[in-house]
Specification:
Elements (H helix, E strand, L loop, with lengths): L3 E8 L6 H13 E11 L11 H11 L9 E6 L5 H16 L4 E5 L16 E4 L9 H9 L12 H10 L3 H18 L9 E11 L2 E7 L8 E2 L2 E3 L6 H13 L5 H6 L1 E7 L9 E10 L14 E8 L14 H9 L4
Parallel strand pairs: 1-2, 1-4, 2-3, 4-5, 6-11
Antiparallel strand pairs: 6-7, 6-9, 7-8, 7-12, 10-11
Helix pairs in contact: 2-5
Length: about 350
Amino acid sequence: MKKYDFAVVIGRFQPFHAGHAALFEHALSIADRVILILGSFHASRSVRNPWNAREREEIIRASLAGASADGSAIVPVPDSAYNFNDWRLRIQREVTRRAGGGSVAIVGHYKDDTSYYLDSFPGWALEALPAQADGVSSTDIRDAIFGGRLASVRGALCAGAFDWLERWTAEPGYRSLVEEYEFIRAYRKQWEGAPYPPTFVTADAVVFALGCVLLVRRKTNPGKGRLALPGGFVNAAETIERACLRELREETSLDVGHAQLRGSIRMSQVFDHPLRDPRGRMITHAFMFELGVKALPAVKAGDDAAEAAWFPLYRLEEEEENFFSDHAQIIKYFVNRMQ
């Protein structure tokens, strides 16, 4: 008889590698069934999150092929980047749905500051492993994949995962991510000589009207082709609010007068997740506008936006994978605070 009825392993698994497999095998050794929580469900495809939930499940199943994976559940859970309690409650709900009143343990290891979540489920036993198997890093694996060096990390991947990834590198989506990866490397190289990594300040506009939010489609990397909020970098000689209004005009040509637009600002909020932008430490100040209009104002794409359009809010969940960075999360934050 095993120590627990269920063991929970939480991760983004981008990709699932030998270290994750070691966590799974330990979970299976102490519990009758394993629940793998697949984080960042609905996250937009990027260099940090190259594979969607379906693809990651395929990689996991390929890695765990055989009897050891029988009975394990792979459960996707959406991000709540700026509401940790919401994310924790989602996981507790999904696990309770499957475990019922059975005993539960959470299995993991303290990799860095991002591992604080292991202490956030007091109702579950904690089974912490001392370290990731052989120091395997998903970041290093992704760097090798996008740098054309997949063979160099063969030993860090289960055989089934390596074969899956090798096939994937022949698909069109791989090439677009390589282009983004190369852009990010070149962007960061500009700051190699700085005494410390720079922190960038941006401003974003979250404009609501008649059940819609105003969005642009990005023309360039990172996130080329992704849906995004109008916004950009703050110039040295302007306030953050002025930067927001300027970027909004430049990218959308929103047909609303300046006084009406300023008067429509309801609140602002700082969004500063350390990994929110692949270019570096990017802190954005988002301003929420609520336009009191009877018809949606005309918009037209400009500057570095390929398209500008009003987007129905009811489609936010179903289209979240197509958003850039954390912009869908930012919109959700303000939706929950609309009048």
